[in-house]
Specification:
Number of strands: 11
Helix content: 40-55%
Structural class: alpha/beta
Distance between the termini: 45 Å
Order of helices and strands: EEHEHEHEHEHEEEHHHHHHHEEH
Bound molecules: nicotinamide-adenine-dinucleotide
Radius of gyration: 20 Å
Largest sheet: 7 strands, mixed
Strand order of the largest sheet: 1-2-9-6-5-3-4
């Protein structure tokens, strides 16, 4: 099957790269890498594959074989699996590995895995030798529609999530939807919550397509993923993200409009708070975003910004993504406090992304939202 293509250009960084989406693409990723990486005369370049044991065990051999067939030397570095390993310690180990393997600026990193692998590998690529090319080969739905696109890279720190990082665009993104066939159902639900986030921000055809896809899809039945439909859905999702990133690639602090990159934080104020109060253990990131969308919807409705139909559409589609894990023993007060914990870091105001209607995001400072409204919205969702 030929790959569908979406081009992403960030004019201020003079960067353009292509996102290829299709089925059966991994076995040809060596030839794809050649089209993405600047060609050099002389010796074959080396590609460091960064992954984890689980993903590499599933897809590593196919990727490595294809890269070698295309003339690349390869080396492999596997990180431990899990959000808690997206940290400075893993980063240091990866940088040491790249040094030991003597990667030069004409070599590259290929990130094979979910958002954790992609964020860590992307950040390492951005600082090793002041920057070497990185190729993203995302294998979770969340990474395919969101984290591999747009160039945000980061690691977590003891003082917060994603607080050390960089904006660094990859040289190419290859999305093989066949990898979704091995993804656990909860990871699919998590990915669909991020897809709903983007669909609700975009509105129109993307919202309809996402909703239609979910109407007939059960995350527990991943063997039945309709490949043509999921390729079209991912294409629409990345095209939306590419458009937003192209207009505001570094998420300008000054912008508050409905097309700024900040809108992609829809659902994330509550999501980050929930992840924090559950010690990053109870919820997948995308599941926390699912809850966050519902809270933002409730606040929008309470402020009279979003009407009842709009809120219902949002709630219905989140429900279709699959069950969100129940949240026991967490009070609305605790979640609310976690939403404002790093207010100082954010210039004293938290920007809430709310909806005027599906497809019409609006950014509102928390100084304009009564605390009781936020707490009530959280209370409603916890029920
Ligand atoms: N850079 C960005 O713009 C951006 C955007 C959103 C999220 N993120 C980051 O992404 C991360 C979350 O990413 P994620 O949801 O992909 O989680 P993840 O990378 O932890 O992957 C989830 C799990 O699925 C496994 N896995 C991956 N691919 C698989 C496959 N094909 N088959 C079976 N198992 C597979 C992984 O080993 C892991 O256990 C967070 O760290 C978040 O901060 C970054």
């Amino acid at each position: 099957m030929d790959a569908q293509k979406v081009k992403i250009t960030t004019p201020k960084e003079s960067s353009t790269y292509e996102i290829g989406i299709g089925s059966g693409l991994l076995t040809n990723c060596g030839a794809w890498a050649k089209t993405c990486l600047p060609s050099l005369t002389g010796a074959a370049k080396k590609i460091a594959i960064v992954s984890n044991k689980k993903v590499f065990g599933l897809y590593g051999a196919a990727v490595e074989k294809s890269l070698r067939r295309a003339g690349y030397k390869t080396c492999v570095w596997l990180m431990s699996d899990g959000e808690k390993y997206k940290d400075l310690n893993s980063l240091q180990k990866l940088l040491a590995f790249l040094g030991k393997e003597k990667l030069t600026r004409s070599d590259a990193i290929l990130a094979l895995g979910g958002g954790v692998v992609g964020d860590l590998a992307g950040f390492a690529a951005s600082i090793y030798l002041r920057g070497i090319p990185v190729l993203q080969v995302p294998t979770t739905l969340l990474a395919q529609i969101d984290s591999s696109v747009g160039g945000k890279t980061a690691v977590n720190t003891p003082f917060g999530k994603n607080l050390i990082g960089n904006f660094y665009q990859p040289h190419g993104v290859l999305i093989d939807v066949d990898t979704l066939g091995t993804l656990p159902p909860r990871e699919l639900t998590a990915g669909f919550c991020e897809a709903i986030k983007q669909a609700a921000l975009a509105g129109g055809a993307l919202f309809t397509r996402t909703k239609r896809f979910l109407e007939t899809f059960d995350p527990r039945d991943r063997a039945r993923i309709d490949k043509i439909a999921i390729i079209e859905l991912i294409k629409g999702q990345v095209a939306f993200k590419a458009k937003i990133v192209a207009g505001d690639h570094r998420e300008s602090l000054l912008r508050q409009d409905g097309k700024s990159r900040k809108i992609l934080n829809f659902g994330h104020t509550t999501a980050h708070a929930l992840e924090k109060v559950t010690h990053y253990q109870q919820l997948k990131h995308g599941e926390a975003v699912g809850y966050g969308l519902l809270v933002a919807g409730e606040i929008s409705k309470s402020l009279g910004v979003l009407d009842a139909n709009g809120l219902k559409s949002l709630k219905d589609v989140v429900k279709q993504a699959g069950p969100l894990p129940p949240l026991h023993n967490i009070t609305p007060e605790k979640i609310y406090r976690a939403t404002v914990f790093d207010k100082k870091n954010l210039g004293g105001v938290i920007s809430w992304v709310l909806l005027k209607e599906i497809g019409q995001p609006v950014i509102v400072g928390d100084d304009k939202i009564p605390a009781a409204t936020i707490k009530n919205a959280i209370r409603t969702i916890l029920k």
